[in-house]
Amino acid sequence: MEEKLRIGRALEKLGVDVIEAGFPVASPGDFEGVKRLSQELRGLQVAALARANKKDIDTAWEAIKDGANPRIHTFIATSDIHLRAKLRKSREEVLEIARDAVKYASKYTSNIEFSAEDASRSDLDYLCKVFEAVIDAGATTINFPDTVGYAIPWDFARMIKYVVENTPNIHKAVLSVHCHNDLGLATANVLSAIANGARQVECTVNGIGERAGNTAMEEVVMAIRTRHDLLPYYTNINTKHITATSRLVSQLTGMPVQPNKAIVGANAFAHESGIHQDGVLKDRQTYEIMNPEDVGLESGELVLGKHSGRHAIKAKLEELGYELKSEEIDKVFEKFKAQCDKKKEVFPEDLAAIVAEEIWRIPDKFSLSYLHVAGGSGIRPTATVAIKIDGVEYATAEMGTGPIDAAFRAVSSLTKTKSRLLRFQVSSITGGTDALGEVSIRLEEDGYIVTGQGADPDIITASVKAYLNALNRVERMKANPNSGQKRAVI
Ligand SMILES: CC(=O)SCCNC(=O)CCNC(=O)[C@H](O)C(C)(C)COP(=O)(O)OP(=O)(O)OC[C@H]1O[C@@H](n2cnc3c(N)ncnc32)[C@H](O)[C@@H]1OP(=O)(O)O
Ligand SMILES: CC(C)C(=O)C(=O)O
Question: What is this model's ipTM?
């Protein structure tokens, strides 16, 4: 309930006009969720879904009646396949059911939406008759769903135009569309519908929804905003909240957003190829059609990877605060490319480490002498660690919640550091149970953010090596106060 409410509040802040909060008859939980949203969200309309029958409509109204501007959304299928196989009713019967449902809902409110489920596979003349009947009965929003994502943009445009031209009272209602993404065409279909008279778009954040999902809200909004020359319409969406809302929805639904998803994917504003990076550095508009700031991102990102060129590396080094000579940049670039062959993405901290190790050439302060770990079920994990600090060996033992925690506590005690671990990742370099484990960590120590890597057949040893590697990098940063390396802003 609380999560639903958090998403509801985020949508209100985003500026959506209507939230379809749920299907109250579906379960007591859905009923309570819709009711709570209706009571708490006053700045928008909260709609409740109902099949075309009295019980669903009564329950929907009961859930939303306290809302600021409640909407009943009732629906029934109009395609022959749904009539024959699912509803087992004739066209005439379904037309009567639809009309009666809307008339029944009108005893509660004048804010009524009617959807003709599977409209895109329905006979258009029959569909127009149904729409005409429900508008006469009191529907103020008429929804044309492409329920199974079957439509093709120019044919969807033809269908919308047909409905507009052949439903005599269509001007009394707002025409809406609701597209699914089974063929990856939901956004395209919606845009073609808008261009032909649709004025409400039913969509979801991140495109989540049944099967391949629904039309992604952020795609429609940004298409209208970016191509205003061809789409002279507007939405009330405050686009600066798009990224935050997308992340919230992803987090609360547990549905990750694919990295290359338009607008909200992690890579949507990231440039990795050297030629693109060079262009973006010279003028962002060479490869950016939208401002990342407009969707709430700080700025577009240059991703350091194997496709990056010298221009991008030089720019990133400057951004990090390094003032290097041309031959030093060449050296960093060479090492950087070698690292890229080993890992997909190289972080700015890795670049900083290359500078520290290749240009400054300061020896490691800390090195592992030995590590002994006792663990298993029924005993408290204990690690005994000895490390050399500037050549002198020190040892201690610590307990922890697990063997890695115990070993890290021992390292922290010996090195007198209090690092904050930001990321810990274990992967196997080779296959099988004898695989070499590679640990990559990212930590913050004394205001510096660094990465560290360690490899060993024993993952606890690999973890301690990675930890010490990161701490050595911090020491190099500290030893070069004039290097220009910026301390991290935490
Ligand atoms: C197109 C859409 O996406 S609509 C939204 C889909 N969302 C959901 O389905 C929400 C979750 N659903 C549920 O919890 C349940 O399906 C309920 C509570 C809605 C209904 O449960 P039940 O009464 O057990 O019926 P069940 O789901 O098994 O079957 C659906 C029945 O509704 C009928 N029906 C389907 N759509 C409609 C409609 N729009 N209007 C009237 N009746 C309909 C079907 O013909 C079937 O009737 P039958 O029992 O006479 O054969
Ligand atoms: C209820 C309607 C709008 C629906 O969800 C669909 O047809 O996909």
Answer: 0.96
